[in-house]
Design a protein that fits this description.
By secondary structure, the chain is of the alpha+beta class. It is built from nine helices and 14 strands. It is globular. Bound molecules: flavin-adenine dinucleotide (FAD). This is FAD-dependent oxidoreductase.
């Protein structure tokens, strides 16, 4: 919740957070998927930064986010190993963490138990359409699958999938690196902790490299250090300057990390959309095609709400805000972008 400005994405985050909580409330699930309602702590290093952060928190509170102002003198009660001299911060108790691969495996198990089948290593090569243009299934590397509805959940490749259906979606890769430290004792870093300028980086439209420190512990012990953002296409080469910037930012927030080894780093491509909102819902240009992609750096957090909303539209509810959908889908309309220049 903490890094989202008031608006449709924050509403989707509130819905998704509630649904993650419900899922994690089922017996044994929280431990199985490492769900942890640990809270997010955003810190400001200057008085001006703190004013801006508190302004953001005021707006978030107005739409239902819990945001607790934390004075400079209280920061170390909440997060003992933080750097000294910070101006203050805001604590977001609703921010949660989950281990995405375990969560995905659990959801697959649930889906299979409900009758779904999963095919891995099977690429969609064409979206099949009727003479009138409606979807009638997909052609894959393992043959055709016929269905009256197809959901494009291809993440960063959602634009390519849309093109296979004869339509367009401006999904672009936004590269990010993460450093993973050696395991540390539990609760060495208690919250997801990040600097206030991270919010501006997330919202930025720039293709240039941005880094702002984000530090969080994990159930297994390693601390994850992010976050970089840059639009360099699907370039998978490792960047030492980015890794160095991440390490420097993290040690500014947590000086003790200077004595901790980074065991590995990895990179990935966030599915970036020009207006930073995902595409969720039916594609008015291709009957039977639905999109659920383009969540940029929040696709794990927003997964539950997205799945829930797609299930609602697939089972006949509409995205009319006056009807019974849990969230107005119009800001996420897949056809909201002009066709030219795509
Ligand atoms: C460094 C970094 C840090 C991040 N941190 C966070 C975070 O803290 N919180 C958070 O919520 N999110 C985070 N994200 C973002 C998150 O990882 C993404 O938003 C999310 O994974 C998108 O999920 P998805 O299911 O839409 O797409 P994906 O997980 O990318 O899945 C799409 C799948 O579609 C498959 N596919 C593509 N084309 C085809 C085809 N033609 N046929 C068949 N299959 C196809 C792909 O192989 C892939 O398996 C981070 C991302 C990065 C890179």
């Amino acid at each position: 919740m903490s890094d989202k400005e008031p608006g449709p994405e924050l509403e989707l985050a509130l819905l998704s957070g509630r649904l993650w909580g419900e899922l994690a409330g089922e017996p044994g699930i929280a431990a199985a998927v490492e769900y942890d309602l640990k809270g997010g702590l955003v810190v400001a290093s200057s008085a001006e930064g703190l004013v801006a952060l508190e302004g953001l928190a005021d707006g978030q509170r107005a739409v239902g986010v819990e945001a607790v102002a934390v004075g400079a003198g209280q920061l170390h009660d909440i997060e003992p190993k933080l750097a000294k001299g910070l101006a203050g911060g805001v604590l977001y108790p609703q921010d949660a963490q989950v281990m995405p691969t375990l969560a995905a495996a659990h959801v697959v198990r649930l889906a299979r138990a409900a009758g779904a089948s999963l095919r891995t290593g099977c690429a969609v090569t064409e979206v099949l359409r009727t003479g009138a243009g409606a979807v009638r299934g997909v052609r894959t590397s393992e043959g055709e699958i016929h269905a009256p509805a197809v959901v494009n959940a291809a993440g960063t490749w959602g634009g390519e999938l849309a093109a296979l259906a004869g339509t367009s979606l401006p999904v672009l890769p936004r590269r990010g690196f993460v450093l993973v430290t050696e395991p540390l004792p539990p609760r060495t870093v208690r919250h997801k902790v990040y600097a206030a300028d991270y919010v501006a980086d997330v919202a930025s439209d720039s293709a240039a490299l941005q880094t702002s420190p984000v530090v969080e512990g994990t159930a297994a012990g390693p601390v994850l250090i992010g976050a970089s953002r840059e639009r360099v296409g699907f370039d998978r080469s490792f960047s030492l300057p980015v890794a160095r910037a991440l390490a420097a930012g993290a040690t500014r927030l947590f000086p003790f990390l200077e004595g901790v080894r980074a065991m590995r780093g990895y990179l990935g491509f966030r599915p970036y959309m020009p207006d930073h909102l995902p595409a969720i819902g039916p594609d008015a240009r291709v009957p039977g095609l639905f999109h659920a992609c383009g969540h940029e750096g929040a696709g794990i957090g927003l997964a539950t709400g997205t799945g829930h909303l797609i299930a609602q539209v697939l089972t006949g509810k509409t995205s009319d805000p006056d009807l019974d959908l849990d969230l107005d889908l119009s800001p996420f309309r897949p056809d909201r972008f002009p066709e030219e220049g795509l």
